[in-house]
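fold description:
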Amino acid sequence: MQSQLSDFVVADASRCIGCRVCEVACAVAHTATGKEHPVAGNLDSPLLPRLYLVRTPLATAPVQCRHCEDAPCAASCPAGAIRRKDGALVVEEARCVGCKTCMLACPFGAVELVPVYAQGRAVMQTVQTEDGGVCTVSPVMVAVKCDMCTGRQAGPACVQACPRGALRMAAVSDLRRRRCAQAAAGLAKYVTALHPEDGRS
C-alpha cells in the first residue's frame, strides 16, 4: 500500500457563491506573460482555467482533478502525456496529441482540451496540400487539468484567491487521522453514556 496518498483541492459547496474568482486565479497562474505580477487585465490570451465552476439547482462549486492514485486519465493516455510530478498528476503538453481519451476516461469531467497560445495568438495546425502549398486547418489543442499549481510557492492559486474559503487542500493522510480521532471521541462518549459507573468523562 502506498504510504503517502496524493493531496488535492476540495470545494465546500455550502460556502461557494459562484463568483468564479477561482477560475480567474487559475487562468492567471497558468498564463506565461513575462510579467512579474500578471493580472487578468494584462493577459495576451483568453482566460483558460483548469477548474470549472458547475451550477446545479442543488449546489454550486468548482470541479477539478482529484489526482487519483490509479488515474484513469494517465492509464488511458496513448502518448504517456499525463504523469505524476511532486505528488500531482500533470499533463506534459508537449507530448499531448489532443486525442481526447483522457477527457472520456476522467470520471469527474476535470480534463479539458484548449487551444495552445504563443505570443497572444493561437498556434495553428497546418497541412501540406497536393500542390505543395500549406493550408491552415485548426488550432493546436492540448489537454489541461488542475496540476495544483505545481512549482508555485504559495500553493494552488484558487485556494489562495477564494473570498469565502470554499476551497482548501485536502491532505488525505491528515484527513484520515482527524476522522479517526473524531470517531474515537464519539465512541468514548457513547461508552461513557452506557457505563457511567466507570467514572470516565
Notes: The mean pLDDT is 85. Residues 8-196 form one domain. The first helix runs from residue 21 to 29. The CA atoms of residues 93 and 142 lie 6 Å apart.
